[in-house]
Amino acid sequence: MAQLPLAHPPVLQRDLFSETLHLKALRVPKKECQAYMKLLNGYTFDKPRLRCILPEADRPDTRLLLLAEKVQDQGVRRFAPPWYLCFEYRSHAVINQCVFSIIVTYDLTLNYSYWSAEHVLKRLLPEGCEVPTSFESVGHIAHMNLRDELLPFKNVIGQVLLDKNPSIRTIVNKVGTIENEYRVFRMEVIAGDSDLDTEVKQHKARFRLNYGEVYWNSRLEQEHKRLVDTFRPGQVVVDMMAGIGPFAVPAAQKGCKVYANDLNPRSYHYMTVNTKLNKVENLVKASCMDAREFVRSLCNPDHSTARDGQGGLIFHHAILNLPATAVEFLDVFNGCFNQQRWKDVPLPHVHCYTFAKNEETDADIKARAETALGGALTSGCQVHLVRDVAPNKRMFCLSFQVPEAIAFGQGDPTAAAATEVDDNISNGVNGHHNKKQKTAEVC
Known about the structure:
GO terms for molecular function: tRNA (guanine(37)-N1)-methyltransferase activity. Helix content is about 20%, strand content about 25%. The chain contains 11 helices and 18 strands. The protein has helices spanning about 35-40, 90-95, 115-125, 155-165, 220-230, 250-255, 265-275, 290-300, 360-375, 405, 415-420, and strands at about 20-30, 55, 60-65, 100-110, 135-140, 140-145, 170-175, 185-190, 195-200, 205-210, 235-240, 255-260, 285, 315-320, 350-355, 380-390, 395-400, 440. It is elongated. The model is unreliable at about 75-85, about 305 and about 415-435 (pLDDT under 50).
């Protein structure tokens, strides 16, 4: 099909995508279809999602075997004329087995519903434009990030993708960058209905949300599972930026006690909805406050919400899932722990998400964390590559156990900034990140 002339503004005319193929077909005995298919291998009709063997309404004992487009013949004829000459490399043994067949003409019409989104958009968009066919699915919503040059065509792009993805009812396009403290980006509906209330399933959990009010990223599904898999039943998890519960809910399903917090009141609302939806509300205690204040409230024995024993809450893991700024919140752990309370108890492991440029090393990420913590990380910390976000932007998870000197406020707050990076850091972290080496121990 040729490139369609561009309308201003672009309009999707579905009837322009009809194409009729004039094919040859063999009328063969119903019981011999597979034998003919094997004999004529390479000469039968082959297009994705289309069958090459078709029934005939008035001939119950025969079928039409569609032949490849390269096979042509001069009209309808019985076997006696040399139609078999179309099959250039076939032997007389093949010919002898085809004596009961009749060659006929068959017109096959392919309309708009047959063609893929990529095929349709290639014809609609100006030559040289990158065809957008990928998107993030959030329930019935498809989220796109269209390039500036495609914005004049956003509505027709949205309509095509809506037509070609039956499970999608709404197409949204991101407008600008995330600029608010709740990580919610501005978006516009470019096709479909405007209903942003949806439900997502991840592994064994269900999550309800309004995509316009809270943060959600379906591409982090495997990372959610990876981290939760490191938790053990009965452990206590503190989720400082919990969102609607992608870590908190599966951790609770595993048997962990979770203290989950988010600053966004709507995230807090959906977190409580999702704990009930997944029947783990007795294992998740939700809060809506600043992340630092949340941690201090759990660790401070004098705080009104610290009800889990004298001297504050004993917990095993803390999660900081706010990659743009989470490292800055690490300062809350400096001097936050009651030394008597944590005597002979292992200090918690922290899992902090962050972004880094391609040229930044694991050691650079560790150094940033040490600066925020106000002390040096000692041993056992790891940097895990989560995913590539953009051409020069990657997402990582830094995991480490809080050192005693930091936990009990015994370290020098300027020590980390003055510490030189150890030249003997293991696993090659002084070089650039290697995609194949996703996790490296850097302490």
